[in-house]
Amino acid sequence: MTKLDNEALAEAYNRALDLEKAGKFDEAAEAYKAVLELDPEDHGGAAVRLASMGKGNAPVKAPDAYVSTLFDQHAEVFDMVLVDQLGYSVPLMVRDKIEKLELGPFKRLLDLGCGTGLSGEALHDLVPHKTGVDIAEGMVEVADEKEVYDDLYVGEVVEFLKVEEEERWDLIAATDVLPYMGELEEFFAGVADNIEANGIFAFSSETLPADVLGEQNFMVGKYHRFAHAESYVRNLLEKSGFTILDLSPITVRFEQGEPVPGHLVIAAYKKS
């Protein structure tokens, strides 16, 4: 983009955001549509905000440009904000559940959406070889500085899972990944293609009450992340060849002092 385009985009986005915050959702929707015309790649997440306001259908996923921009902006302070301010402890929950279920030993971890390496740190002594993947280059740089992973890649996780690898992984983790995805079919299929027989898939999701979700498999919540129906996750795991070992309700984080409900899932891959 040229400087003029950036200025026009910033002005249009700020106008839309102000209208949304003022509760003028019809006007905000039109303003966000103008933003999308200026920025089809959607670095500001206009499509997600439209869905959150009920002014557009939920996209199949959060735009890649939006996710990478969002996390790159917060890379240097990510751990402090997520853990200290938002009370996020899902990686430690994953470790605790693995130990309680007496799973392992493991040889190779694939940490999808690794971010700054919180899951890699939590699982560091449970698996000798660790690979991390994240769409945000700034997050990967922070993870690299920690020297948590043996291999690190910048990339979108579904696309990464399409690349043929010589070896599969026997532990695949995806903490705080599903909230930026709507449809999960391709993602779960990719995990199945890359996991060893009897390998463990550990991940978290966010959810909403049944009376809010209705018949929807997923929707965008008020904090602009995707919430998934438990039934959708269960059915899709089964179709993808996984057996659920544990599915527990958790508080994923806190937003504006409110607990964000979700699930922690541990599943084993049973197809050869």
From TrEMBL:
Annotated source species: Pseudovibrio ascidiaceicola
One MF term in the entry's GO annotations: methyltransferase activity
Pfam families per UniProt: Methyltransf_23, TPR_1
Cell inner membrane among keywords: no
Keywords recorded for this protein, A-Z: Methyltransferase, TPR repeat, Transferase
Domain of life: Bacteria
Name by which UniProt lists this protein: Predicted methyltransferase, contains TPR repeat
GO biological processes: methylation
Keyword Oxidoreductase assigned: no
TPR repeats: 9-42
